[in-house]
Amino acid sequence: MGLPKRKISKSRRDKRRANWKLDMPGLVECPQCHELKLPHRVCKSCGYYKNRTVLEVGE
């Protein structure tokens, strides 16, 4: 079984782990109420999806 020939330094190890992070989700504008929403999902503020009322949102 292969073994490392030298110890990996902490800085080299941490540089490799530095790219594992969360990204901001891509948001789009709702065509009805112009609020930001996740794509391909019902708008939480107005209840529309693909130019139809899907949810009744109480105001």
Automatic annotation (TrEMBL):
Superkingdom of origin: Bacteria
Keyword Repressor on entry: no
SUPFAM superfamilies: Zn-binding ribosomal proteins (SSF57829)
Coiled-coil regions listed in the entry: none
UniProt keywords, alphabetically: Ribonucleoprotein, Ribosomal protein
InterPro entries, per database record: Ribosomal_bL32, Ribosomal_bL32_bact, Ribosomal_zn-bd
One GO CC term, this protein: large ribosomal subunit
A GO term for molecular function: structural constituent of ribosome
Keyword Ribonucleoprotein part of the UniProt annotation: yes
GO aspect biological process, one term: translation
PANTHER family named in the record: 50S RIBOSOMAL PROTEIN L32, LARGE RIBOSOMAL SUBUNIT PROTEIN BL32
Assigned protein family: Belongs to the bacterial ribosomal protein bL32 family.
Protein name: Large ribosomal subunit protein bL32
Organism: Lutispora thermophila DSM 19022
Lineage: Bacteria, Bacillati, Bacillota, Clostridia, Lutisporales
